[in-house]
Amino acid sequence: MPKPKRSVLVTGVAHHWGRSLVPLLENDPDFTTIIGIDYRPPEKPFKRLEFFQIEPHHPLLAELLKVSAVDTVCHLLFEDAYAPSEEIFDLNVMGAMDLLAACGAGETPRLVLMSSTKVYGAGAGNPNFLDEYADFKGKSSHPYINHRVEIENIVDRFVRQNSNLEVAVLRFANILGFGVDTPLSRYLDLSVVPVAFGFDPMMQLTHAKDVTACLYHAVKGDQVGAFNVAGEGYLPLSQILRLGRRIPLPFGAPFLRLGTKVFQKTPIPDSLPIPTDFLKFGCVGDTARMKNELKFSPRYSTRETVTDYFENARLARYRPRKTRIESDPKATEELQEYLKSKTRASDYLSELIETFNKEGGHDQ
Description:
11 helices; two-stranded parallel ribbon; alpha/beta; globular
């Protein structure tokens, strides 16, 4: 019996995670309809994606879901905010609320939500491993954590009141990948890295490639619930800095908190992208449900994620920066057509010579 064809809508297709996920869906014949939305257009066109430049607030979104018979929505449209912003709050939190309402009105049965293990918070009372039922204590001066907590609370209330929607929440540990803008990458990109004096928290990482693979796995599957997602193992912050040959600069925790508040009012509010509590205490998620129920195994361990990131960062220093000296993409297409025409002409000439030799009795 043939598999039923799938229809999926992805939010944030002009942002990194959406751009990374869509090609996997396009290459999967099970997905016949792939719709993408974002408040800005993608930099490069996709092969099969139907793109609409709208926000989750748009009043026709529910109609789009219903008419297209979308069976899964993958919500990836989220902006990391390092300073308070009403506009980003409206996009992140209120946008998620409106998207849920659209899923309900559009009779969409499944939602995949990208979240973070930072919703658990970092504190001295944390157990060694936090399971998916741990309380949300991620109150932070950094809005990108508070917004995640708010969104998860909204989703939880919505699901309790609307049993028709099944939700899979993927809580990724610290995401790191060369060329991917995340709070941890901004922190580790500093040559001199501020740390909390007297503290060395354990950290758990997820490679950016594993994030994309897990999103695809969840969209393809039918698992429901919350899942911590991270690479195998964990490392103390001091060892991560040593692997990257970064110089730690110790500060008292009160000075780090004060520095965060000061920098949030400057033009460089993300100078301290990791909240102070996460530089003091561990926040390590239990990944048993990821392995046993989600049936997903990350390719990179925490250590491999760190070494891969810093190795690529080191090699990037030796790569030439492209300015005006680069090929025109249109010229590449023209060159391909030229080579194809030459190949066809050469093949045609070879056939004529072979036919002539056979007819003339010269075929040996």
